[in-house]
Structures are given as C-alpha cells and as structure tokens.
Amino acid sequence: MVQIPAGSFQMGFPEDEPGRSDDEGPQHQVSLPSFFMAQTPITQAQWAAVASWRPVGRDLKAQPAYFKGLNRLVEKVSWQEAQEFCLQLNERFNKRPGQGFSYGLPSEAQWEYACRAGSNTPFHFGATLTPDLANYDGNYTYGDGQKGAYREETTEVAIFPANQWGLHDMHGNVWEWCADHWHDSYNFAPDNHFPWLIPGAPEDHPRLLRGGSWVSLPRNCRSASRSHPRLDVFFLNLVGLRVVCLPHQGCSSNAARKPGG
C-alpha cells in the first residue's frame, strides 16, 4: 500500500482537453484526507489467496482471469465480487468492528486524485501517452504521441513507470472498479472523498470504472476518463480492481444531491 497525501485538486476535464466527454464535467474542486491505496491493481496471486478464505457473502473463483499469470492483474471481476474481496480483507484483518482501518474500493474522487498525483495534464505522465508508458491499443495516438505496440493482452503489474506517488498501472491494463454509483455529469457532485451514491438505487444501477484497459484507445485512459457498464457485464478480461485502506470512520458516502439539496 502507498500512502496518498491529503490535499485538494480539480476533478474532471479542463475545457481544452482533447478527447473529453461531457460526463467528465463540470470540473470542480475536491478536498481529501490522506489514505492508503494499493500500489498496483490486485494480482491473480493476491486474488487467489483471498478467494481461499471463508466467504462473507459469496464464494470467489480462485482464478477467474482469462490471461493467466500469478503476477498479472486479475480480471473478469464483477463489482459484487470486488466488494466481496474487500469484505474478506476486513473480516481477516479488521478485528475491531467500527474501529481501526477498513479496506474498500476507492471512491471516484480518491481514484482520480491518486492517479493525477499532483498533475493537471491528461495523463499523470504528461500531455500524451505512449505504449512504453502503459498498456493500451498502441495503434491509436493521443496528442503528439506516437503509435506503438498493441499487446492484445494484460501484462504483469508494475512493469511500467509509476506516477509521482508510486502507483503503477493507473492508465490502461484493466479498468478498475470504484465504489460510486454512475452519474452522467458532475453537476451537484460532492467536494469530498466519500463515494457519491444514490439513495434507494436498484442493485443493478451502474457503478464506476476508471483507468482504461489493454484494449482501450489512449483517450479512454486519461486521468479524467470514466465508464459505466452494467454490473452483470464486466467485459470479460477488461475489468479488475485496486483497493484503498482508510480509517473506519471514513467509510461513509455522499447521497446524491439535487438542486437546492
């Protein structure tokens, strides 16, 4: 785990950022306390270890991934399975319910803040992305970037450079689940680190994915890029997870806000 420093940032796309989507705005300031985030997405070895424990709510397949390799990222993971993974971590390591630290999926704000690592460019590397920096479809370019390798599969974790805070694979490789419900814009979005949830939302309401994958265009790997599949459609070998750890009292949420609310 890597400690992410407390701070504030502008979440979402700047108006002049190429490849932006309307659901990435309006840009707004968010302030966050310090928290811990996994240095890499969860590997197949880590997943298999947790899957062998007693389930909390559901069984987990020991090896769900299509592209096999203990040090590769786990994929073919649904949001519910990602939640079960976090519940099992808490069951094993948090022996004082309501106290200590809790594991969970990052909120969308935590994810983007950690990805940017103090940057305000489309990628934490800078203005563009090249296949020597991340795993995506290198047949396509962004900005002044050059075409390059399209690997057509996941890679082992941490073979690409980390961002300024020591996090690997924040761009490409696999999409990563966030805790929030999907909203189609940041109108009335919260200004803190809690997940943005919709009270009473049906269980199948879309959740958030961040980061892009090995099959993504580079514009879909930007720090601000977002996606929202149905919970029962996890794009086979494109979706994994990364966990955060924070004081238990931080594991709350924001109810969706409306005008005047």
Give a quick set of tags describing it:
261 residues; paralog of FGE (formylglycine-generating enzyme); 3 helices; alpha+beta; 4-stranded mixed β-sheet
What's the arrangement of strands in the largest beta sheet?
1-4-11-5
Helix content: 10-25%
Rg (C-alpha, Å) = 17 Å
Total number of helical segments?
A: 3
Cα shape: globular
Main sheet summary: 4 strands, antiparallel
End-to-end gap: 36 Å
CATH architecture assignment: Alpha-Beta Complex
CATH homologous superfamily descriptor: paralog of FGE (formylglycine-generating enzyme)
Number of domains: 1
% residues in beta strands: 15-25%
How would you spell out the order of helices and strands? EEEEHHEHEEEEEEE
- Text of the CATH class: Alpha Beta
Poorly predicted regions: 257-261
CATH topology: paralog of FGE (formylglycine-generating enzyme)
Average of pLDDT: 91
Assembly classification = single chain
What structural category do the secondary elements indicate? alpha+beta
Task: Tally the beta strands.
Answer: 12
What does this protein look like?
- By secondary structure, the chain is of the alpha+beta class.
- It has one domain (1-256): Alpha-Beta Complex (paralog of FGE (formylglycine-generating enzyme)), CATH 3.90.1580.10.
- Helices cover 12% and strands 16% of the residues.
- The strands form 4 sheets. The protein has a 4-stranded antiparallel β-sheet. Strands 9-8-6-10 form a 4-stranded mixed β-sheet, with helices on one face. A two-stranded antiparallel ribbon has the order 2-3.
